[in-house]
Amino acid sequence: MKAIHFVFTVLFIFLSVLPEGHAINITNCTDKQYRQNNPDKCNFFIDNSTPIFSSATVLGGAIALLTLANANKTSETSIQNSYVQPTLPSYNMVGGDVDSVHLSNTMDAPEYTRNYNQYNDIRLAYSLARGFTGKGSEIAVLDAGLDSKHGQAVAAIASGPIAPDATVKSYKIAEDFNFVSYKEIGNIINSASNADIFNSSWSVSMSATALKSKNQLIQLTDKTFVDSLSTAAKRDAIFVWAAGNDHSSQSSALSAMPIVIPELKGHFINVVAWDSETGALANYSNACGITKDYCITAPGTNIDTGKTNASGTSFAAPIVSAAIAVIREAFPYMTSPEITELLLTTARDLGTPGVDEIYGHGMLDLERATRPVGAALVPIDNGVMQQLRTARVSGNVAHKIKNADLNFAFFDDFGRAFDAKLSDNISIQNPSRALQELHNDEEFASFSIANFEFGFKNNDLLFGDGFLKTNDKNIMTYIGTYNEKSIGNLTFFQRTRFGISALQEAQNSMITGFSNIYTTSLDFGANLGDWTISLSIPDNIIFGKMNIRLPIGRAANRDIIYKDYTIDLFSKPSIEYSVSYKSITAGFVDNPYGTDEIFILTKGKIAF
Question: Which residue from 262, 177, 247 is spatially nearest to 207, judged by alpha carbons?
Fold first, then answer.
């Protein structure tokens, strides 16, 4: 038999004793049991002459709308049919670094399917698949405590699958329908000295536009409370505030505090609620209004905590708080202003293009927030940053680097370090034997004594550009022998050379130095009239080392971390087979580390 779920709505309004001379029009609502049984009759309202704030109390302060369904819910969940986020091959594209199987398994987990559509709206699967779980952050939940359904629900969302490894601590600022004083709230904030995120799922009925100055805020609340916000901001904490559930074009006055407390800018995010079923701002949620520059949207309707279903900006706020914990873990060197800017910048635009007064910056997006933003930059140890482009490197060196399987870090517009494979950012560039044969200008000085020869030539065996740039010209000193023997009309020849190069690293390169590089080359073949057949082993490294210094990350103090590596450059030789007739040469190069080459060339001179 199909179960029937009863749904009821409770609006929690926390009131304290009003100043003398102001009355609340209620009937039996002073009785706790009556209030609980008759919430529709105890929707308190304040006389127009009554100030919304009191120096000792939160007057008319509302912990946002809470919908409870099936309060005795079991662990059984129903899996909703929805789409799976796509993955693309490039890291700078959506999910390009995430294995599709891992992503699918993440989205199939029971704790994910419980709020499948809501989590897909914020693209949670990607931050989870990238391994970020909020470890190391402490979220202080300023709420009604764990003995209230509201406090339980907010804490459950903050400690749920978005940031399951974050530390969540509940601080009781209200009991039943009564807030403690603002001074006490300030003392509670000061006592939570280890918290780097404060979740405040409560608001007041005063509009954000009515808050004009810091002095006014102090008069309406308490100096201890206002000072506690500034103190927490100075130690780099972030406040996440629910916008309120009045279906107003403006958020609550508490959401406007950064406008009158400059220290809170970059340390405060206002949150409006999204309805994942309707695909719009929830019908109860206040809009961002004048807080749009630091306002974000997050799912807040029908959030399943495992025990209750909750709806309200109260429950959109802890989703954002958990997201901040994810960013703090992933990038521990980021300051609060950088984190808030990141979340706002990477939010998906909703409604009117750009930042607007309804959705602010748009939907919280944990896929965008945990991948690079902007141009990828590579730091060089001398302090230079250069744009990450695929480095072209000569074949044998490229092979040795790829074989070393090294990782390095590149940086985005926010200075965040991202891990990448060095081998994925190198293309093999083989020196063209055809061009070398055509130019035949490698040697610029040579000497012969009998069958011995020595001289100097340019060596391009260690060509590299980009972040692995080498000097354009590297001089090799060589010594060798050349021998010929004729049998009738057939002449056999053989040339062997041994070379040494003292290379210098280029500026603005990850390459920091070379040992002496030792090479050998071999040519032998035969001439018969105008025909020549030969087999050659071009210059090949038999001994040498290259030192590189790679950025591998960023420390908590923002210093870039480097690590030194030594690459052994000994490599297998390429083999060239060629046939020449007069001035025409055809050849084939068998290259063990790159593209094989076939060439046909002719050389000639024009005299004037």
Answer: 247
- The C-alpha angle 369, 390, 378, rounded to 5 degrees, equals 55
Q: How far from 272 is each of 144, 202, 297, 363, 495, CA to CA, in Å?
A: 20, 12, 5, 10, 79
Q: Which helix (H) or strand (E) holds 595?
A: none
Tell me: the pLDDT tens digits for 495-513? 999 989 888 778 888 888 8
Burial class from Cβ neighbours inside 10 Å (0-12, 13-18, 19+) for residue 484 reads exposed
What is the H or E stretch that residue 143 is in? Answer: strand 138-143
Tell me the pLDDT band of 243, cut-offs 50, 70 and 90.
Answer: very high
Single pTM value for the model: 0.77
Distance CA 25, CA 48 (A): 12
- Cα(593)–Cα(595) distance, rounded to whole angstroms? 7
pLDDT band for position 166 (cuts 50, 70, 90)? very high
How far out from the chain centre does Cα 96 lie? 12
How many angstroms separate the CA atoms of 312 and 96, rounded?
34
Q: What is the mean pLDDT of residues 44-63?
A: 31
Q: Are the CB atoms for 399 and 428 separated by under 8 Å? A: yes
256-299 pLDDT, tens digit per residue, is: 999 999 999 999 999 999 999 999 999 999 999 999 999 999 99
For 35, half-sphere exposure in the C-beta direction (CA atoms, 13 angstrom radius) is 16
Residue 225, burial from CB neighbour count under 10 angstroms (0-12, 13-18, 19+)? buried
DSSP annotation of 255 reads G
